[in-house]
Queue: 3 jobs
Job 1
Amino acid sequence: MAIPVSKERIDYGSPDGSVLHGNARQVIDPAGTARTLKVSESGALCLFNTAAGQTYVLPAIGANDVGLEFEFAVPVTGTGTYSVTTDAATTFIGGGVGMHSTTVAQGGLTAVSNPAATLAIAMDSDITGRLVGGGFTLTAYSTTIWSIRGNLAGVGTLATPF
């Protein structure tokens, strides 16, 4: 389902704003399986909730889909790989994540992805950010680029998940 070009308004422009009661978003927990996200699920919180690992595939970004957004959270420390990949070899991830080590002497790392080459983020070890507490958001900036921002937790000498 494509997001309509003409979107529904919640606010009519009052200087007092608007009130939205009962607002809650979808939570996706694929329970250890690979999961391809849908355009209609934009705004969802996607959990890496199986220690053995989980994979998400982002939806294709159509002309009317710029602005899609998915948030990812790590509520369970992984022992396998937590990853998010784009839908095609021509859709990339650009931006970066702050990485923080639980080893005080190690400090942190800023991991930056190449928006002309990065197809995935893969947290495949404790040094690439699969510890509990991390999270990031991917936003469709164009029909070929997802922007990433967030923070990941690791231990020891950190390494990039890109």
Job 2
Amino acid sequence: MADNTPKQHNLDDLLAVMARLRDPDTGCPWDLKQSFETIAPYTIEEAYEVADAIARDDTDGLKDELGDLLLQVVYHAQMASEDERFVFADVVGAITRKMIRRHPHVFEDASRREEFMATDLWDHIKTQEKAERGEDVHAKSVLADVPVGLPGLTRAVKLQKRAAKVGFDWPNLVPVLAKVDEELAELKEVLAADCTTLSEARAAEEFGDLLFVMASVARHLGVDPEAALRGANAKFVRRFESIEAALARQGRDPSDATLEEMDALWDAAKRDENKG
């Protein structure tokens, strides 16, 4: 009787698949056209899909999405190996050494556990690493290496955390909320201006300031603003789909309903959620 159990592949198999896809003679034409630059957006997208699976508590989906994200690492390593820059083993070696080096309280001296939790030991070790590479850690801003490509709210929080480490921060949430009121008032002031003088650039600037200070609110609350917004997005989708379902039972769709009708259905969906 034939054994239909799927073969259990390992990392070496995945590396071999990636090398085959990039083979100049027999590989996939699409894969052969790719570069670090063209693959980078997929890498970012796959990281978001991992986060989405986690948010949906989808264990099977998480397994698949982690595989997709792993493929991105393998993809970049394969392209680097073709240019003789580095290979996948170098990536594994580098991160393994880094994790050991940055966790001395685990791999060297257990007595440093409290120091790790109570101080900036991780950042101190990072600074040492940069100095060992010959980088002048005092020559550039404390904000210099916060990646520009991060999502805006995430980068705002990281920038604020860096500034806070050198004392540039509000002491608690009270003045932060006051700043929210100030920024909101400034946005309202711009929007209240005569239509002929309203500057889209100025409105965008004030809106950006408001978002930036809201990121600070999230930071002081210990909330991930991106995760909070994803939750709000999911809530919107859930409640709007409830509106669509309610209208569908009447043989209608949202384009046939008034705003007042949809608002009432929204409130009903909200009440149902709160009761649940």
Job 3
Amino acid sequence: MRQDDPEGPAAQDVTLNENVSAAAPIMRLLAIMARLRDPKRGCPWDQKQTFATIAPYTIEEAYEVAGAIERGDMDDLKDELGDLLLQVVYHARMGEEAGHFAFAGVAEAICEKMIRRHPHVFGEAAAGGHPGQWEAIKQAERQAKHAKGGGSGKARLFDGVPAGLPAVILSAKLQRRAARIGFDWPSAEPIFDKIEEELGELRAEIGGPPGAEKERRQFEEFGDLMFVIVNLGLHLGIDPEAALRAANGKFVRRMEAVEAGAAASGKELSEMTLDGMQALWDGAKAAERSGR
């Protein structure tokens, strides 16, 4: 279905002419990327990049977007969204060069997906969605993709979950997927007991005899503890990744205050005692709380 098809399901609600002004800069960006990748006239660095070498930058730019949102910096967010858009254009250009897909196909695919997943908005009977509708449609898509890829039978539970996600995000995604089929704690309360159990097992391994086996078991028990803590966050309605990012930011702020306090007394951090740094930390913590 073409985006400008007057008979398309989105036609009655989406006026594409209102967004024509966005087409020119997108076309310019596509032309810039084509020039950068040109084998004869392009940039030597851009010419030699691949999907694999660009992927880390794509992930980094997504986090930069998240960082701008956390700071509430809308000017920076605009710039970071542009950087992220560049990543999409970069991958699309490489896909076009290899004969796999082009930017227009990427845009068309997401248009069709959004329309398909919102039948309550773009369908003939636009009367609001029902609980579970989004996931049911996604499951049907996964099943169709599974069959297209030559798989037989029903798609597996974790089909479509990217293994390359950051570990905390992946853990949350896996546990959400499992919860949809009922494999989860009924409430947050029993998770505290599970945390105590995992913490006890980790302590037992720490106190065990030394050796490579001890290190392996400590590694596993620590991972188990983190996994359960992610589950607790989900039950409390907390995004574990966002919570950890916020804790990281808090740590940086307070350590910067400790550093400033040390400098005010004419000392480097390396010259401070642990008690001295702790006192400055407590002061920074108290100042943050009084400013809430």
